[in-house]
Amino acid sequence: MSQLRDHLSQRALGVKQSAVRDVFDIAMDPNLVSLAGGNPWLDDLPLTELSQTAADLVAKHGTESLQYGTGQGTDEMRAAACTVMAADGIPDADPEHVVITPGSQAAIDTACRAFANPGDVVVVEDPTFVGALTTFTTWELDAVATGTDDQGLVPEQLDETLTRLKDEGRRVAFLYTIPSFANPSGALLPTSRRDEVAAICQKHGVLIVEDNPYGQIAFDGNPVEPIAARHRDNVVYLGTMSKIFSPGVRIGWALVPAALKREFYLSAESAFIHASTYSQMLSTSFVNDFDWTGHVAHVTQLYRERANTLVGAIREHWDPAVEFIDPRGGFFLWATLPEGVDTLEMMAEGIKAGAVFVPGAAFTPVEGTHSTLRLAYSFVSAEKLTEGVRRLAPVVNEAVAR
Ligand code: PMP
After folding, report:
1. pLDDT score at 15
2. pLDDT of 346-378, one tens digit each?
3. Is the pLDDT of residue 402 over 90?
4. Coiled-coil intervals in this record (predicted)?
5. For position 17, what pLDDT does the model report?
6. CA–CA separation, 171 vs 329, rounded Å?
7. ipTM beyond 0.90?
8. What separation in Å is there between the alpha carbon of 8 and the centre of ligand 1?
9. Is the pLDDT of residue 110 over 70?
10. Mean pLDDT on 52-72
11. Which of 222, 231, 283, 338 has the highest Cβ tally under 10 A?
12. Atom 8, ligand 1: which residue's CA is nearest?
């Protein structure tokens, strides 16, 4: 056993067995109310019609649906990705600049392959997506946190961070950011800040990787224009079918500036050859043949109601010293307890009380104790959300009082 473990690379050993992995395993326990996993709600998909479409794909496309395809993705899926991006707020994406990937997680990995050397810095907003942090560690990159407030990235702090890194002689591979309804914070970066962030990155010669899985889950029905809409030349924009259709189909994409596209898709090919042909066909059909925008509008309404329920329950049951960002879209609510509280410790008590959340430590490269936590409302009924908050109340309120 120990000898076998000698075969593990430094890289594999460096990936933190994060508290979050444990949380997600624990969260499967049916006796717990899980506010941990940000799964999309799939029950309201048109499942009968979809199963017919899925069955018809092989009949309609023959062996093509089961065959190898091209590295960049099918023409039809790249066109469908452009349709989705138009609804995100990028009306004129060129399908020639799109690379289809098995989800945006794979696109993040591809960005590391294509743009980063071992030891480089990736600048991340703090907090940021745990899956991206894991990928950065895998590629032996140094994730450097830059500050946020309840509206996301703080431009002045980004400028300071990039200036400091330049003074230290560090190579910055890219800025990784989730400007719309971020995971985990739910924050929405205002348009003015988007322009500032783009200008700062331009000034420092830093590429932006903009990850936008939640942009269309806007509770007011108006997605905010992505950074890539106005600053295309310096942005690699990531989209996905995961939140608007299905994460199980594993279809996402990157919209890549022309000058970077070739290396990007060669990097992608070296990892996975191409995304599943069959899944690309199913996703294409969802966009072309179904009322997909109607589905997004419907689930967005559902998420909005759930977010409202969650906010109401927190206001009723939790000490007002707990601050949180009121979600305006997406899947998550981010709460901050008074300084000194360790939410990693609190998690164990929460599980004993019958509910589970993800402690903030998972979402930051900054070591130490963290008094933050993430609650996901996307996959939990209103009754269960309230029940979860109620179960956690004694744990939270005691931690605040301590
Ligand atoms: N980026 C962010 C910000 C996410 O929240 C997620 C999913 N949790 C992903 C990427 C990965 O999504 P996909 O299923 O497209 O790989």
Report:
1. 76
2. 999 999 999 999 999 999 999 999 999 999 999
3. no
4. none
5. 59
6. 34
7. yes
8. 27
9. yes
10. 93
11. 283
12. 38
Residue 76 has pLDDT above 80, yes or no: yes
Distances (CA, A) of 385 to 30, 41, 321, 350: 14, 14, 20, 14
The residue behind tokens 């707990």 is 322
**What is the spatial distance between Cα 135 and Cα 347, in angstroms, rounded to a whole number?**
25
pLDDT digits 0-9 by tens, 279-307:
999 999 999 999 999 999 999 999 999 99
Which residues, listed in sequence order, are joined to residue 333 by a DSSP beta bridge? 375
Tokens of 4: 């076998």
Go through 23-39 and write b for each residue having 16 or more CB atoms within 10 A of its CB, e for each that does not: beeebeeeebbbbbbbe
Phi-psi region of 359 (alpha: psi -120 to 50; beta: other; left: phi over 0): beta
**Under 8 Å CB-to-CB from 185, ≥6 apart: which residues?**
127, 148, 150, 152, 325, 332, 334
Q: Determine the average pLDDT of the residues in 15-20.
A: 64
Does ligand 1 come within 6 angstroms of the Cβ of 212?
A: no
Whether 129 lines ligand 1, by a CB cut-off of 6 Å, is yes
Nearest to 172 by CA among 136, 134, 147: 136
Residue 12 pLDDT > 90: no
3-state secondary structure of 106: helix
How far apart are alpha carbons 74 and 252 in whole angstroms? 12
Cross-strand bridge partners of residue 375:
333
251 CA closest ligand 1 atom index: 15
Q: Which atom of ligand 1 is nearest to the CA of 250?
A: 14
d(C-alpha 109, C-alpha 80), whole Å: 22
Res. 78: pLDDT tops 90:
yes
Amino acid at 300: T
